[in-house]
Amino acid sequence: METDRAGWDDRLAAAVPGDRGRVRVVTVEGRSGSGKSTVAERLRAALAARGTAVAVLPMDDLYPGWHGLAQAPELLVEWVLEPLARGSAARWRRYDWARGRFSREEYSLPGPVAAGGVLVVEGCGSGARVVRPHVDLSVWVDAPDAVRAQRLDARGDAGLYAPFRRVWADQEAVFYAAERPREHAGAVVGNTRGTDLTTPRP
């Protein structure tokens, strides 16, 4: 079922489970260039407008380098999701892409989010099988290959990304064939009109 494009973010925010006395986790998964960051930010804004404490954690922070897609879901679970499930504080380190290593500084959720808000995890790998038991709502972002290619070409860091584009695409292909996150998504945001986002399909 489709709704008006202007309201898809509100509908998606309404699909996030209500207060459960713990941090609720939403994942936004999809191939490179599909529009995951845009969907995550629009969802964050829609939840904030409803008075929900919300934070976004990009998977970019957790990939251990350009060959690290397969390892990142395990780090997400170990550093963030399992501690939250135990009622403990989530603490993680961000990967420093310039230095090629994780930073020494630890990061944690803002207090209001840790007290029972919503954590939106955005990026390839967030829909992995090992992540799913900890997730309240999983979102898949869809876009045609041509649209994704145009977006990747237009990225501000396209020059930095270009040498690794095939390496990353190959990892995505292996990951999605094995993990099949789209089939397990609770909602699908179809990005089929260039930069326009159509609606979630529950």
From TrEMBL:
Q: Which Pfam family is one of this chain's hits? A: AAA_18
Q: Which InterPro entries match?
A: P-loop_NTPase
| Name of the molecule in the record | Phosphoribulokinase
Q: Which organism is it from?
A: Nocardiopsis changdeensis
